[in-house]
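Write out the 3D structure for:
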Amino acid sequence: MSRLKKIYKLLLILLPVSVAAAFFLVYIIYWPFVPSGEQSADILVRWGANLTTVAQQLEHKGVIRSADQFIFTARWFDQTKKLRVGKFALRQGSSNHAVLQGLIKGPQAFIALTLPDGYDSRRFAQMIESQLEIDSARTMALVHDPHFIAEMGIQASSLEGYLFPETYYMTFGLKAEQVLKLLVAQFKENLPDSVIRLGVSKGMDLNQIVTLASIIEGEAMVEEEKPVISSVYHNRLKMGMKLQADPTIQYILPEGPRRLLRRDLSIESPYNTYLYPGLPPGPINNPGLNAIIAAVAPADTDYLFFVANGDGTHSFSTTYSRHLQAKRRFDQVRRQVEKEEKQSRHE
């Protein structure tokens, strides 16, 4: 047999093998296992996740046919270290190559993070941890970090009050620093210049404005009452009266908000407005824009007192005697509610 015939025979053997190998590679790498698949699945790639963990998640959620085949594809293209941290919406039944490119270059899915008006930074940190898996302890450390606060351009001892409550759409994998920078940037962007000017005209700096706004936010459940509540505090400040604001007591309770007891009013703290006159050292929560505006634009009233009505509204009074009458009415309502609740538990 001539040398040429041997080569020809070898090619006849190798060609089908090569075609089969090429088809096998195409099948593994590029072939979707459900070509008509249109549903998507959320894939979360956490910090420190390895290729095997991600591949198993992809297989479990029906995005790919086989975790092993996805791992083979990533190794074939030498992209085992290029997966990004994030949340991705990937179509079920996709090819391994399409999924790999989606995790490396594709858009991330957004996560809605709603931070309500009047929540303090500790609750914000807990919500951020729940939604974005950012350690709440790290977030709170930054809230009180003097260097980070100065970097944010905030002249205060804490970022409490300067984290703007809003619904944010964020990507998974952000760091605490990035999230807090965004919240502070939103505060600055949403704060009207007119608020600063009005505050200056009343002898208030920004920290005092936000501090008073946080107390108003802590008291008000009805938006329309915020300017009226603000007027009470402005009137008391002018007369040198203590604010006696319950939200400042709630802020210093180590176990968090609850029904206040008489002994709570004696807790030693510069934030205790039952013990110390004037505003506390800083904000007690992160107020919304309406409360901030109310802090510098109070209603024109002579009110010095207010008490809850039990339905979210308040009764306002100009004298202590009328305030006591309103308080007795509220106490009667509260006792009746407690009595009915007790009866319903025993039925």
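The two ends are 103 Å apart (CA to CA).
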